[in-house]
Write a structure and sequence with these properties.
The chain has helices at residues 33-46, 48-52, 69-78, 106-117, 151-161, 181-208, 238-252; strands spanning 2-6, 10-17, 20-28, 58-63, 82-85, 123-128, 131-138, 141-149, 213-217, 233-234. By secondary structure, it is an alpha/beta fold. A five-stranded mixed β-sheet has the order 3-2-1-4-5, sandwiched between helices. Helix 4 crosses helix 7 (238-252). It is globular, with a radius of gyration of 19 Å. The model has no long low-confidence stretch (mean pLDDT 87).
Length: 253
Amino acid sequence: MIVIDAGNTNIVIGFYTKNKLNKIIRLKTKNKINITQKEINKFFKSNKKLINNLKDRFCILCSVVPSLNLIFKNIFQKNKFKFYVINPIKIPFKNSINYNLNQIGSDRIANYAYVYSKKIKDCIIVDFGTATTFDVIKNNQYLGGLIFPGINLSMETLLKNAELIKTSKISKSKKIVNNNTFASIQSGFYFGYLHAVNGILKQIIKENNFKPKVYITGGLGKIFRDKIIYKPIYKEHLTLEGIKEIGNKHFYE
């Protein structure tokens, strides 16, 4: 099975054989449509052997970029794949979701699908993507969550609007007070988001009066995992795992 997580920044393609993730390929989302189409065609040519060795030619797409959906569908069906786009209205566990299914992103559905499949009763999932999202699960029920701008998006906005700040990157900082602009920006973003995440976790737990496991995922999650309270479990490919679980239900059950 091939699973695809098409986000606003990156497209992540995962190859699964016997329920095991064997290979991951990343593409940039912010290309023009025709460039993205060429990249996907290139992906098929360069991974021909791996694709031909797949036992089941199934592909499941989790997408928050609707303009790409038809491109993926046409290319995969052309290559004789059974193709499915995750639709929150048609998921098998929708009765467990307390959220407007016409508005929820399929990436958040995939994250919930992972913990649902693992029968994790109480948890919070923090996903560091284009947006930073929190998904709250209590007594196996998806209660909803919150969304605020992702770290890289905030950094891009700062660099775009501050003429004297040329470049910076997100990384772990050792101290909060610094004596140069580059280090000050690094510590500002690192500690700013760290304390925001910790504060939000405290508020969620207080409001819902439960003791959840905390999962973090997304590329930048790894730089925060040692400092986030409640001893979070870092699972880099949690979204892909959730997409795979939905694919298993759709194609095999």
